[in-house]
Specification:
about 180 residues; mainly alpha; de novo design (two linked rop proteins); rod-shaped
């Protein structure tokens, strides 16, 4: 058999191998991007609920303007960060979570507010959305782990960087989000 046929055969096999690695990386990246969009949808639902929540609390606790402004500012920052990508969005969403915890701590001081039908409905909706966010985060983190495994494992790691595949960050709760909220009476 001529040498040039062997060389062509080896190149075809190597090309098929590289194509397989590339396609696996693309599939994992797309799955990770899709799961991030699921997180983003849930976070948008939460941000959309915030103005109603703030308005309801504002009717009862108008002098708590600083807390209400903090929630509003965090929501605006999260809307802007959602466009920037998962790292910035995750940080901004952690600020939203922290500000909402502060808002609910304020609400504890107003028994009439805690009993208000609109406030209770908004609170239930927010709890539902938070559960959905947690589920979407878990799916994203699982897909990010699988993608990162592919990007960082041999032999794909030999080509991933050159082909533009970078590891994805995990969405984690920030330290303030893990801490319990102090509720004063």
């Amino acid at each position: 058999m001529p040498t040039w046929l062997i060389i062509i055969g080896v190149l075809i096999i190597l090309g098929g191998f590289l194509l397989g690695i590339y396609n696996a990386l693309v599939k994992a990246r797309n799955l990770t991007d899709e799961s991030w969009s699921g997180v983003d949808v849930q976070l948008k639902r939460r941000r959309d609920l915030i103005p109603n929540l703030v308005a309801t609390v504002q009717a009862y606790a108008a002098h708590e303007a600083e807390t209400l402004q903090m929630v509003t500012d965090a929501r605006v920052a999260a809307d802007a960060a959602a466009i920037a990508g998962s790292n910035q969005a995750a940080i901004a969403e952690n600020r939203v979570t922290k500000s909402l915890r502060g808002l609910f701590a304020v609400a504890e001081n107003y028994p009439a507010l805690k009993a208000d039908k609109n406030f209770l409905q908004l609170q239930v909706a927010l709890v539902d959305i938070e559960n959905n966010v947690a589920g979407a985060r878990a799916i994203y983190n699982g897909n990010a782990r699988a993608y990162n495994d592919k990007v960082q494992s041999i032999p794909a790691n030999l080509f991933a960087g050159t082909l533009g595949f970078k590891p994805r960050p995990y969405v984690e709760a920030a330290a303030p989000e893990r801490a319990p909220v102090a509720v004063g009476l």
